[in-house]
Amino acid sequence: MVDHLLPLGVDSAGVDAAEVVLPVVARTIEGLLSLGVGPITLAELADFLELEKGQVELALDYLASDLVAHDRATRLVKVADGYVLKTAPDLAVVLGRFLSEEQSPVLSGAAMEALAVVAYLQPVSRAQVSEIRGVSSDGVIRLLVDRGFIEGDRRRGRVGEPILFQTTQLFLERFGLENLASLPALADFVPSAELVEVLEESRRNR
User: Fold this and answer.
1) How many angstroms separate the Cα of 109 from the Cα of each of 116, 128, 179, 199?
2) Which of 72, 102, 131, 165 could form a disulfide with 67 if both were Cys (CB 3.0 to 4.6 A apart)?
3) Domain finish residue from 32, 60, 93
4) Handedness of CA 203, 155, 160, 129 (dihedral sign)
């Protein structure tokens, strides 16, 4: 029994751990994720709660099911290397109205197109993005860097060579992806058949 997680006034003696501790651990995890510090890994949760990873996984499953069963405003989502709470899909439009234009996470079609090129072909230069899109991409690249979705990969470039861009951890978090392998098929993500062909041809020639 993990006494440090029991509610105040509850004695662990004679108490069924499955009935008391599991909901309490799940509630504690929900509180931690509500802090909005970004994804918290399974190992970090287990270390902080002083529990085995298997126990934390049971609590995460309990929390995910409980949020859905009670139609709560948030859902438990695994992104990048950890877990976060995300707004329930049916509330996205309503809550989006509350955000100002500057705060809105919605990207323009041009920005999404450029982001798709970087996501699927990274690392890729600004010139390569522009060449694939057929228009200058300087503005949208700056926007995506400012938003934190992509970053210049200076480790790969040498002096005098163009900066190569790649997606960030924030990109995975905001788009609900566990890793880059979770990216959807190009045909589902980019509606233009011509652009899909260019992207796949570029990938084959790398």
Assistant:
1) 10, 18, 23, 17
2) 72
3) 93
4) positive
| pTM (two decimals) | 0.52
55, 109, 172, 206 from 161: Cα distances, Å: 50, 29, 27, 17
The pLDDT tens digits of the residues spanning 122-179 come to 999 988 898 888 888 888 898 898 888 998 875 554 555 788 999 998 888 888 788 8
Looking at 93, 121, 150, the residue that finishes a domain is 93
Please name the helix (run of DSSP H) or strand (run of DSSP E) that holds residue 93, with its range, or none.
helix 92-96
Q: Which domain holds residue 38?
A: 3-93
Domain match, 135 and 181 both: yes
Residue 151's Cβ-side half-sphere holds a number of Cα atoms within 13 Å equal to: 9
Confidence of residue 16 (pLDDT cuts 50, 70, 90): very low
Total number of residues shown for the chain: 206
**pLDDT value at residue 177:** 84
Residue 100 within any structural domain of the chain = no
- The CA distance from 158 to 148, in Å, is 23
Rounded distance between C-alpha atoms, residue 200 and residue 116, angstroms:
12
What is each CA distance from 170 to 32, 82, 151, 174, in whole angstroms?
Answer: 19, 12, 10, 6
Q: Are residues 20 and 77 in the same domain?
A: yes
CATH code at position 200 = 1.10.10.10
Per-position DSSP letters for 13-39, written without gaps between them: TT--HHHHHHHHHHHHHHHHHTT--S-
Q: Is 63 part of any domain?
A: yes
* Residue 162 backbone dihedrals phi, psi, to 5 degrees: -65, 150
